[in-house]
Amino acid sequence: MSANEYLEEAAYQHIKNKIVRREIFPGSRILQEKIVQETGISRTPVYQAILRLKHEGYVDLLPKRGATVVNPTAKEILDVFEFRIFIETDLVRRVCPIISDECLDEIEYYANEQERLYTTHDIQTFNDLNRKFHTTLCKESNNMYYEKFLQELFNKTDIFLLFYDRYIMLSPEESATLREHKQIMSALRARDTDACVRYVREHIETTRKHLDIFMPMKNSPEPQIK
């Protein structure tokens, strides 16, 4: 790693950690000069780090406002989860009958690691493992576009989970994520395609419903995914 790459990585981790720790919130500006002062890193690596975060879905670059933490609308969030259902159910329908034991073991490892660190409230690591749990199946599909599209969708959903997911308020026994991942694993092990498709759909819908932004208000209908 070159000196410039090292500085860019350091700036990237600094900004991302501030987002992950909720020190800066959706819609808030990311002031380059402040990052330069906090890190001692020059403007160019800081700007490159911001571009990287933009590519990953954490940051918007807006005219006259500069860099801001993304602030998705409820409609945008609904659209992303709807498309995840479309992609992931099609993926498991294709892969479930032919999945290898090696792939199953890898996915189960990610599920077990999530359960192991659940009580640490390390949201970023938990979300990284969650992404791996869902995208590892892509290797079995023999189609590179599943992973391409899923990674782009997770770049969007990760920011929703960081700010709106209530999982840290629940015990492991109450966690829908842990329970539903076990259901998906069980269906995959049995090569039960219909059950796996059903569990994946239910899991993505449950994740969306548990976001604070979608918790139903009194006398207000809950948004629906068709």
Low-confidence runs of at least 5 consecutive residues: 215-226
How can the largest sheet be summarized?
A: 2 strands, antiparallel
Estimated structural class: mainly alpha
Question: What amount of the residues lies in strands?
Answer: under 5%
Helical percent range? 55-70%
Distance between the termini: 47 Å
Please tally the β strands and state the result.
2
Shape: elongated
Explain the overall architecture.
The chain is mainly α and 226 residues long. It is 64% helix and 4% strand. A two-stranded antiparallel sheet has the order 1-2. Helix 1 (3-20) packs across helix 3 (43-56), helix 5 (101-117) packs antiparallel against helix 6 and helix 5 packs antiparallel against helix 8. The radius of gyration is 19 Å and the shape is elongated. The termini are far apart.
Protein topology:
Blueprint: H1 3-20, H2 32-39, H3 43-56, E1 59-62, E2 66-69, H4 74-95, H5 101-117, H6 123-135, H7 144-164, H8 176-189, H9 193-209
Antiparallel strand pairs: 1-2
Helix pairs in contact: 1-3, 4-7, 4-9, 5-6, 5-8, 6-7, 8-9
Summary keywords:
226 residues, mainly alpha, 9 helices, 2 strands, 4% strand, elongated, disordered C terminus
